[in-house]
Amino acid sequence: MLELKDLTYQVEENNETLTIIDHLDLTIDDGKFVVITGPNGGGKSTLAKLIMGVKELTSGQMIFDGEDITECSITDRARKGISFAFQQPVHFKGIKVLDLLRLATGKNISVNTACEYLSKVGLCAKEYIDREVNSSLSGGELKRIEIATVLARGTKFSIFDEPEAGIDIWSFQNLIQVFENIRKTVKGTVLIISHQERILNIADEIIVIEDGKVKKHGPKDEVLPELLGTADAVNRACSKMS
Q1: Given this model, what pLDDT does residue 209 score?
Q2: Model confidence, pTM
Q3: Alpha-carbon distance 128 to 113, whole Å?
Q4: Are 188 and 155 a contacting pair, CB within 8 Å?
Q5: How many whole angstroms separate alpha carbon 50 and alpha carbon 31?
Q6: Structural domain boundaries of the chain?
Q7: What's the confidence (pLDDT) of residue 242?
Q8: Strand, helix or coil at 44?
Q9: Domain 2-236's class?
């Protein structure tokens, strides 16, 4: 379980203090497939980075599995079972996919085991296992390899920050299948930051973040219809104005 208590994150800009996350309270139960959504600039990605420790919160407290991790470093949080996949996957020139998967697991896993992880994300293992993780790979390929490393780690709490960003429609279709499989097979908690309806539709719970606060949090069947209804209303209003 992850408990966020009175979280605040502020930055200084042009001699002004901007509040990005505003006294936010949130609890995410174990074993849930959760999607965070909301308007651009609402604080979604910032919240994900605060949980991982990429950004340092201004005030508040984080409790993970009953332990206070507020002051823990990224490395410590990773050791405690939190994983993070960035919007734009990192390139590792000179490192092969097999090496990256071994680094993720912390073990000298066999080629066959590494191939199993690649197969889970829809990649032909023979074509990718010896390739370098560099710019020769497409955005969709890099995303799926990064997801494979998260699966290889087998952590309790996995965070994916807008995994659909920067990939084409074909890659997105494959990505949806990957997350549908993750939802069925992964025992830990999965947290995804996304605007995409198809990702929202496979969630157990949806959290709406707006102006740095939790606007809504509940089961998908309760929250998603309201979100879609709001979107339809906006689209109808825009049509009348045009």
Answers
A1: 96
A2: 0.83
A3: 14
A4: yes
A5: 21
A6: 2-236
A7: 44
A8: helix
A9: alpha beta
The DSSP line for 149-202 is HHHHHT-SEEEEE-TTTT--HHHHHHHHHHHHHHHHH--SEEEEE---HHHHTT
For residues 140 and 167, is the Cβ–Cβ distance under 8 A? yes
C-beta separation of 89 from 142 below 8 A = yes
Structure token digits, residue 41: 């600039």
Can you list the residues of the chain whose pLDDT is less than 70? 88-91, 170, 230-242
Token pair for 112: 């066959």
Q: How much is the pLDDT for 168?
A: 72
Distance CA 119, CA 178 (A): 10
Burial of 56 (0-12, 13-18, 19+ CB in 10 A): exposed
Pair 200, 35: CB distance under 8 Å? yes
